[in-house]
Records
---
Amino acid sequence: MDVRRRDLIDVALGHERADLAIRGVTLMNVASREFHPADIVVKGNRIAAVLDPAVGAELPPARETIDGTGYTAAPGLIDPHVHIESSMVTVTEYARTIVPRGTTMIAADPHEIGNVLGLAGMELLFTEARGVPLKIRLRVPGRIPAVPAWMETSNATLSLEDTRGMFDWPEAVCLAGDINPELVLGKDPEQLDKIEMAIGLGVTVSGQSPRLSGRNLAAFLSAGPEDSHVAGSVDEVIENTRAGMRSVLALRPGRRLDASHFAALARVIGERNLDTRLFQFCTDDIHANDLLHEGHLDHRIRTAIAAGIDPITAYQFATLNVAEGLRIDRDHGSIAPGKHADILLLEDVAAVRVAMTIIDGRVVYRDGSYRGPKTPYRYPDWARGTVRLAKELGTADLAVRAPGNEPAATVRTIVTGGRKLVKEVELPVEGGLVLPDPARGINALAMVERHRKSGNIGRGFVEGVGLQSGALASSVNHDAHNIAVFGANYEDMALAVNRLAEIQGGYVVAKDGEIVAELPLPIAGLMSEKPIEQVADEMEHLEKVLFEELGCPSREKIFTQLNFLCLPNIPDYGFTDKGLVETGGKLALLETVVAPGTAARQ
Amino acid sequence: MDVRRRDLIDVALGHERADLAIRGVTLMNVASREFHPADIVVKGNRIAAVLDPAVGAELPPARETIDGTGYTAAPGLIDPHVHIESSMVTVTEYARTIVPRGTTMIAADPHEIGNVLGLAGMELLFTEARGVPLKIRLRVPGRIPAVPAWMETSNATLSLEDTRGMFDWPEAVCLAGDINPELVLGKDPEQLDKIEMAIGLGVTVSGQSPRLSGRNLAAFLSAGPEDSHVAGSVDEVIENTRAGMRSVLALRPGRRLDASHFAALARVIGERNLDTRLFQFCTDDIHANDLLHEGHLDHRIRTAIAAGIDPITAYQFATLNVAEGLRIDRDHGSIAPGKHADILLLEDVAAVRVAMTIIDGRVVYRDGSYRGPKTPYRYPDWARGTVRLAKELGTADLAVRAPGNEPAATVRTIVTGGRKLVKEVELPVEGGLVLPDPARGINALAMVERHRKSGNIGRGFVEGVGLQSGALASSVNHDAHNIAVFGANYEDMALAVNRLAEIQGGYVVAKDGEIVAELPLPIAGLMSEKPIEQVADEMEHLEKVLFEELGCPSREKIFTQLNFLCLPNIPDYGFTDKGLVETGGKLALLETVVAPGTAARQ
């Protein structure tokens, strides 16, 4: 229940008792960028006053008083760009994990579950969201399916009317823009209609402009998108900022920007006295184990401060700047009279150590104790059983067929690790099938349509995953979430996919004809109802198996890479159930097999 | 005509010719706070691209190209808080004056003409506004009349429904808040309903919190207002900022904040590395002569830079920060792809010397030549004849009557110059009338109701105006614009008021039984249709007469002070046709005469 602003007046004036007073804190003032002493006076879900302690002491006692001595009060952290499903845990578990870390609001785009279960799936996620103390706002998905049906099979279509309808959800806060920017640059009419609609509604138009520069960046921005969370270098961040774009920095070791980029950014900010109001943090997609061990926005702030960003400035990236970017700064993003009482009491500013989290004036986390739902959330049965294959797969179903009788074939392989590339390689042929060559770092890759029993399978190769043996199958595979399977051989790949269908989604690792590890994600093939600690353990076990038993070169962040490797939204290539796709500059299907025989012969 | 954003894409990409290209400028980037080289590409009223010159050169030639070499391109200046009527000239003249000085948009609250001519008068002003190249947005008046009818007679009432209706004007941008803050703190239901309505519409709620501090400031802000333009000290600005309030700095020599305050503010910003995003400039009320000789926002920026504020930061106060404060930053406030093409080419950044002003992609000022309406705007007859007295006034009509037969009386006098005070003084009595005592700096003051022939006259005294002889009558007298008359004797006061009725408003100076100067303002008793140069000359002549012939202690800014002396909106006192009013902490009428005889006898 939102307290009426007029009902705050008498509390601020001291004519009426407050519900909550937090006395004697050091206030982190993100509006003025100062620390100063303060008493905070709250009525209902809003802050009625922030007072000099000498003045605050004159007010009548509150119903509840917290002694804030020794603590720094910071605004609750706001994450502008999240996909909850990527955590693999329920919203309930997600909230339980991040509220004690200081995040009080997230803006979530539910397009993962939306691609699998459509509008009903997204409603399901937000029904659960309404039961947790964390504030969860809706980023209305920018496009479901992500790409036209000729490029990829998804299980849902969000029409322009559906999209408009989602803006009527009470949580709606912006139009999400996790789409291929080519749809904007190429003037896809429906995409431009959505943007125009969002502008008409007065909400923020989110976007992503991976490596767009110069005239492409200008064209993208002039069409309406206002932010990007996919910058991969400081130069890109600076160019975006100069173009008036908000940078939503998905800081993350092993992903686009890490601490070293932040050290460089800190230097640039300092040397040029740059304005930083357009900078924000987000966590975007984050797995259960990373969430648990690394943290949420707290980790981003901690890393930024350690990298040399001024502490309050770093907190602004996750508070005021985000609220401004989402156009919710009337109510959120700072500790000031009239704003929502979303407040952290910090034991340590630089370490982002949270002693207490207050949301809407209620203490929801205090000294290790979280006051949210205690029982696991149960999803209905219709959210399960979403992995539907046309038939059990055999080895030959996943293999690339050689075009002739030559002992080798020249094929296109997608190359991962950094910017996605495609290159041509020669691979051996046996029994009419083009074989992967793990010794040379080339794995087979297949994308098995899993929603509609279409029998569609995209077949090809990938360099950079580094499996020396066995196979990994996954139903988490943005954005359509078909089954991606990577392997050193076709036999283990088929085994892994068939097992994944049995457990109805998640991850399966097969090796030498046996299943050696699995992580079931039965809800839409994306999420588990287990406690986050258990999902995190299973995820780490999977990483260990891949590293120790299948010969993956790195144990860290392997899934972060694999989940997005095939995504056609990020240029310049993707891999779908239709096979290899070109996604930068133009949208097109590419044949895997270039020619029979060796490249040298052409 | 607003170009569709999607139609910018091909221009940015270089597939289609631009309408305008500005090549080779140094861009003042208010988003990143940097200067850097740029080409600016425009289609219709919007910027399609801002490019590195190396990239921009690759684009096809534009229909019109401007060589920007040697110029700095800055965003057009935006004034968030203006009352055009206070300039005493037509909107046409106002625009002609400020567009060459770099202002491309103003947000105007037409409550001056609104108090005199009601909704129709405000529509009249905006009808004229639609014919000038300057962009004029509407600040929907916060309250007409300013105070309840028992305190003051105005000529119009803007109901809650009327107020709601004005938000449907295409120019509406915010709820103005030039009201007595006591109406908010005292929970006036209609005022709080208006605020709630504005929040519901998603627009900015403007306010004013003169010297409110601590719990009063908190109460005011928690009710919804977001800014204040009446801070009178750096301490007040800092306290407001800490409370999350936007400071709209009405920098002006002789008014609340001047260059010395700005030097102090610059020091505080520098020493504490304060965030300055909440700081804005405005001009508020500015007379024709000041506008012409001092300037508009250009003067504010110039003064701030001279006082030590970083140049781009100072421009942010009149561009990006204003656009954010008015929630129009999607389209305004910076030079970036997709924004409106409101651009200045500056010859000198620190001096704010403008070579060219571009609004909506059209060059509207270039090298001394302004491309707006050339003929004077004519107002309809119904906007004239607004000074309606019940009868010709005699001396006794304006005089304070002594309560008994004593030779002296103790009266309350309002004291001006700085914060308004009321003090008690003893004045001589002659013929039953309490007389002013100019030798001791005390003038008579009367407020003659001029709208409805009610015959209401408020009678009293004022210290600080300093007329040694004669009288000054004025129909410009915020916000009700009744006739204020200040005098060293009642005879000249009556003469001045009667003459003012004859010329239907403006200013009249009488001395020793003769009219010695006058400035007719026949439109609503507030504005002239003459060229601004002429009005400015007449205003300066009035100042000269007051200084040289009537003995005013200062020639500078005397009218700025007198126009607002009686205003009940600014605590703690005002003076209306009902007499002396108390306006701080509570609203009340105060008797002028305290007691017969001397104060000492009480």
---
Amino acid sequence: MPAAFDDTDLLCVNTIRTLALDAVEQAKSGHPGLPMGCAPLAHVLFSRHLRFNPADPAWPGRDRFVLSAGHGCMLLYSMLHLTGYDLPLSELKRFRQWGSLTPGHPEYGHTVGVETTTGPLGQGAGTAIGMAVAGKHLEAIYGPEAGFRVFALVSDGDLMEGVSGEASSLAGHLELDNLVFFYDDNGVSIDGDTTLAFTEDRAARYAAYGWNTTTVLDGNDLAELDAAISAAAEHRGSPSFVSVKTIIGFGSSDAGTSRAHSDARGPEQQAQTKRTLGFDPDKFFVVPDAVPERYAEAAVRGAALEERWQAELDAHPQAAELRRMHAGDTPAIELERFSVGDPIATRAASGKLIAQIEGQVPELVGGSADLTPSNNTRPPGWEDFQPATRRGRYLRFGVREHAMTTIVNGLALSYLRPYGGTFFNFMDYAKPAVRLAALMNIPSIWVYTHDSVGLGEDGPTHQPVEQLATLRATPNVAVFRPADANETVEGWRLALARRSPTALVLTRQALPILDPDRYPVADAARGGYVLEGDDDPQVILIATGSEVHVAMGARTILGERGIRSRVVSLPCWELFEEQPESYRTAVLPPEIDARVTVEAAATVGWERYAGLRGAVVGLDRFGASAPGATVLAELGFTPERVDEAADRVLAAAADRV
Amino acid sequence: MPAAFDDTDLLCVNTIRTLALDAVEQAKSGHPGLPMGCAPLAHVLFSRHLRFNPADPAWPGRDRFVLSAGHGCMLLYSMLHLTGYDLPLSELKRFRQWGSLTPGHPEYGHTVGVETTTGPLGQGAGTAIGMAVAGKHLEAIYGPEAGFRVFALVSDGDLMEGVSGEASSLAGHLELDNLVFFYDDNGVSIDGDTTLAFTEDRAARYAAYGWNTTTVLDGNDLAELDAAISAAAEHRGSPSFVSVKTIIGFGSSDAGTSRAHSDARGPEQQAQTKRTLGFDPDKFFVVPDAVPERYAEAAVRGAALEERWQAELDAHPQAAELRRMHAGDTPAIELERFSVGDPIATRAASGKLIAQIEGQVPELVGGSADLTPSNNTRPPGWEDFQPATRRGRYLRFGVREHAMTTIVNGLALSYLRPYGGTFFNFMDYAKPAVRLAALMNIPSIWVYTHDSVGLGEDGPTHQPVEQLATLRATPNVAVFRPADANETVEGWRLALARRSPTALVLTRQALPILDPDRYPVADAARGGYVLEGDDDPQVILIATGSEVHVAMGARTILGERGIRSRVVSLPCWELFEEQPESYRTAVLPPEIDARVTVEAAATVGWERYAGLRGAVVGLDRFGASAPGATVLAELGFTPERVDEAADRVLAAAADRV
């Protein structure tokens, strides 16, 4: 029989509410409505259910709490402060200010105790599901010490976003019973009442996904919340969806309306609200002593839990491996180079490399958004991760690129080294989650095959054009487009060595293997290198991926005509730009203006290497449906066309002399 | 009592199947499984229900058929050929070949009778819902002549994609009873059986969305299909979701397995399948005479329907307006310029312009993904489009950017001039639909506000960085980022004049108004122009949007130091690059290497204007949470920093002399 709730519990709830209110009023910006509505839920969860240890925020056995509705971050910041994390009240007072630990939405790696960056709606829901997959998988392999539970708070906006639907359908299929969603059913979004646009039966939808669904009719009733959390956490065989009827902005005269969602309402309403909640309107950021004392009980329980957990881990036969994974130390890998032979698509080379890696990196897991035979993502011998086979390392994501990417992020945040595959063009479907991985600087790996119009018959709906520019413009992402199987080796090495996300951009079509005895392919690890050519070139041909072979063909033609040229393979701009200037200028001497870049993709960005006096051979139109070689040739990706471009830039350079 | 189905009907069905089979075998590429499984459904729909007139494919009163599962395009091509559209058998024989009318996925504007481009899964579902909105809206305003019905065929993949869930939730809310989804429930996707990843109760999910749901247990039973289609089409008060249990690849020895989904299986299986279906294995692309005769009955009915429709339209009091809208002739608009006054955000200017436009363009409709007060998308006096108010022109999309964009596409394909608003950063959520609008070259308009880190406190999760590069790299999109209210005028003019998509990229923060009596702001219509400065500048400062004012500030500093400079405002690269060379070189003289570009966004692409010898002031990191002016200043978007960059490029230029 749990202890009854008392006045201190109510004081805790109202302290959470007034902290959010004061922070938003101080910043004159932010979202007080959610924290004020969900304070009772957060209080009951953190004080009675959540396993956490503020003295060791990274304790691997802790429960994860994900605030998918990241705009309600003052709820999270208040809980972290009140429960004893290293987030002082002075930082709450600097809410949304330059350099503070309390930015406008929670940022992983920036504020202690924040499990994942949220704010773009739906992302936290998907990432939480990825974490739950990790918990189940690790538990199945290493035993209960390696698992954990995941609780997420989701809003109307989270549930309207398609990505949460995708991921929730998969979570139901996977029967992730270490996962609970609390749905903040407050009936309000920015435009007004949810009856404007969101009248579906949410609980029935989650039941259709295979979730256990329950309802808390009064989100202010601590005992009702307590019972519902217990039941959901104990439910076995499926994830749980707990609808909690809350009142947005509870305590304010705007409570229950869309006005309460966001923005400061001014000192008058601030004072009114604080009086309503039993707080002195003339005092700000007030934390009565009884409040941290109440939460200290939970922290003490958490520390004891961790102590027991550490002892169990010490006795674990695979303690060293688990500790290595918890520390994020991916093993160094050895990969065999490809010797010259039949041409092979870089997607196929990638498949062979995954097969080499999987035995060396036990935390490698991966999957595809229903394109397994095309993405070459499933190494021989792997089992699927399914309810009956949770040790399986292969994930069947279904046709859900966006959910896949959020789940990969959740796995990357949970000691695994995950990859996800789809056609490069369909990266677009997942872009918001790609962006979050980049913003969090986590080592998600994307296997993007069918990387250009060279994919052929599927036509322009499936042929990427602007995706390379998109990813290159996204901070922190390494975009690696190898020219052959041996450059693909370097791509996978890079992906596993980096602590930031990597996109491997791979061909559908077969490409010749660059002989590692003849070409310095290992230099692909520097992002760009002189593949072949003269020390004193008249013209430099710069290319990536399949077009490197087009450039090599053009070099042959130029050579037959007595023109000295150099071919630079540039598989990864980001890596190349990190090299010392001396290396970069050796590869691309700045005094040589006669340059031709070749890539079967949008030209945007290539002037960085071509300059205003070079030529950019690219694609400023959509592709077409026909056999791949035909499409590439018709759209100008031939040695002859590159040779012509070289002639043009050489002639222009001669004119300038 | 409908006529019984006879042997000719079965012959039609098997002709559809064998055409798909022969086309895929001939191309050695493609997806025979869906056409062979869904041939009975298509036959019953086209022969008995669909209102269409192959002699006038653009008849506005026709039913729309959307093949959301675009990979099954041979089903659509076969139906179009057999029912008498201008798609000869010779084109079916050129399936997936360069220049054919039968590309690998259906392309709007390329093949007659294709209502929208599909292939990227989920897109057709959303676009069909947009068409249904248009049908309901136009019917409410102009009467039954202006409405139409929409039938879409959706696959497992379509239903797994989040965008279809978003759009279907909204369709249920909007009670679109002119809409029917046929769900090809074949139990198979590329990876294998749908039990691998997709075990939710789809019909229950659609019921939760508020749809009418029914099931056809035997997708080969023509009478059962016929009855289900009739019931769904006649159902009032909600859209209908008809699950049809089909056998993928019916007739082939691979039927019912994922092997039947795609790819040619070779002549042996081709022969076996044709024998099973009662066709001569040695003859190819066979169309028995009775087949087109059977469909001709439907075409005759359609022609008669159109004749009656045309007569009704002739008698319609608003016939001229309807005919104008059907022809896609948007009225010319007049917009007032802003006179100098208080600074105003370009999003606010946009809101005032929409209010000026809406009375001049009756087909203007629009909405926001639950950011109405922030996007300034709702003009005063507009009513919402809701079940009880279908004349309303304002759409409440909910937090569903992707569905919004597919629906905007569907509206643009249906005689309306739609716009949709969200924060620019959340364009990412909708990118696949943005891309389809670009690929179709339809005039969708996007109102993207909060266009840079200048949005401030919401922080890096909400601050766009790479989105401008993404859209500039996407063919056919005009990306317009105005520097003030008066450039915004030109942006809206452009958006309404274009037949291709336009993105208006607008600030949250207030910007000074450029005095139209002093600055040639009307030249923004040329994409770029000399805003102010010397005829013989030493350095050119090039900027867009809010950073134009930063460049102007730098020009003042440079002038104080005796350096001649020019400020070029470049709101729209695409428009500028369409200008004659003489204009472009007058604005940006090629002999001037000393250039500084300024934009609070990723640098990728700006070397196009800066060259290798200029400086690009941009942002190759994510933003931060703080007041907008602080963020912009901390990240270097100040006149002083631009002045320093100008000094650097001038010094380097001096060194080269």
